[in-house]
Write a structure and sequence with these properties.
The protein is an alpha+beta fold. It has a domain at 46-141: Cupredoxins -  blue copper proteins (Immunoglobulin-like, Sandwich), CATH 2.60.40.420. Helix content is 29%, strand content 31%. It is built from two helices and nine strands; from the N terminus they run H-E-E-E-E-E-E-E-E-E-H. It has helices at 18-38, 142-170, and strands at residues 50-58, 61-63, 66-69, 74-81, 86-90, 95-99, 104-110, 115-120, 133-138. The strands form two sheets. It has a five-stranded mixed sheet with strand order 3-9-8-5-6, with no helix packed on it. Helix 1 (18-38) packs antiparallel against helix 2 (142-170). The longest helix has 29 residues, at 142-170. The chain is elongated, with a radius of gyration of 26 Å. The chain starts with 17 loop residues before the first helix and ends with a helix. Bound molecules: copper (II) ion (CU). Copper (II) ion binds next to loops.
Length: 171
């Protein structure tokens, strides 16, 4: 049993060279991968939402240390100090909040600047205090879907490759 290989219309000429037949799908895959990586995303126009993020501060780290929001979101950071007094100062936004031990302090703001911003502890809390740093990422979450799309593309190309190998063996 021979199934016809899926070909592009331009390749359905009587005797396509085998090398070209193999190269075209590769080229198409490479182009698709580039598109996935660099095409501008509609995610930037995502409807802003309100989100509340709980950040635990303990000597000498924030948990989570990296938080991600979309531009335009109304963000409330709930800072929980688990041991001693800690603070959170958000670079570039110039915002600060401090939490007493065992207490939760809230900081609400609109994430109107996109980029990656550091936040740091603003209360001297011990020897490693200067290293108590976290990151706020403001932007559309494209990385996730770009990664997933690439993964899907890889799976698809693997599948089609093994399919074409099968077809070749059966001939
Ligand atoms: Cu500190």
């Amino acid at each position: 049993m021979t199934r016809p290989l899926p070909t592009f219309p331009s390749l359905s000429t009587p005797t396509p060279a085998p090398v070209h037949r193999a190269a075209w799908p590769l080229l198409a895959l490479a182009l698709l991968a580039l598109l996935i990586l660099f095409i501008p995303t509609p995610g930037r126009t995502a409807v802003p939402t309100s989100r509340t993020l709980r950040v635990e501060a303990s000597s000498f780290a924030f948990s989570p240390a990296v938080i991600q929001v979309n531009r335009g979101d109304e963000v409330t950071i709930e800072l929980v100090a688990t041991d001693v007094v800690h603070g959170l100062y958000l670079d570039d936004y110039g915002l600060e909040v401090t939490a007493d031990p065992g207490q939760t302090a809230r900081l609400t703001f609109t994430a109107d600047k996109s980029g990656v911003f550091r936040f740091r502890c603003s209360v001297t809390c011990g020897s490693l205090h200067p290293f108590m740093i976290g990151k706020l990422k403001v932007g559309a979450n494209d990385l996730l879907w770009r990664g997933l799309s690439l993964l899907g593309l890889a799976a698809l190309s693997g599948w089609s490759w093994s399919w074409s190998q099968n077809g070749r063996v059966r001939k």
